[in-house]
């Protein structure tokens, strides 16, 4: 399955969860919007942080979501790569494997 297909599946799964727990889901969306709003850090910088955390936690669905969000926020492959390097520093070998997936997802989604 391609990363594009995986991202579409993730989004479909989230739609189902939103219907099952609408109030909880709405609360999470509100928190996400507040946390990602421009402030001392730009939205793009915050997406880089989110992506690094997703790699360190080894959450492939989170990685895909934040790779897409970083693309929409105007991030570059070079910025992504530097953030991935920091994530690997903090998470070791498992992070290295997920960082490779993040870069492959970027390359597919950016194409």
UniProtKB/TrEMBL annotation:
InterPro entries: AhpD-like, AhpD_core, CMD-like. The keyword Oxidoreductase applies. GO terms for molecular function: peroxiredoxin activity. It comes from the Bacteria. Gene3D superfamilies: AhpD-like (1.20.1290.10). Coiled coil: none annotated. Pfam families: CMD. Residues 22-104 form the Carboxymuconolactone decarboxylase-like domain. The keyword Oxidoreductase applies. Keywords: Oxidoreductase, Peroxidase. This is AhpD family alkylhydroperoxidase. The lineage of its organism: Bacteria, Pseudomonadati, Pseudomonadota, Alphaproteobacteria, Rhodobacterales.
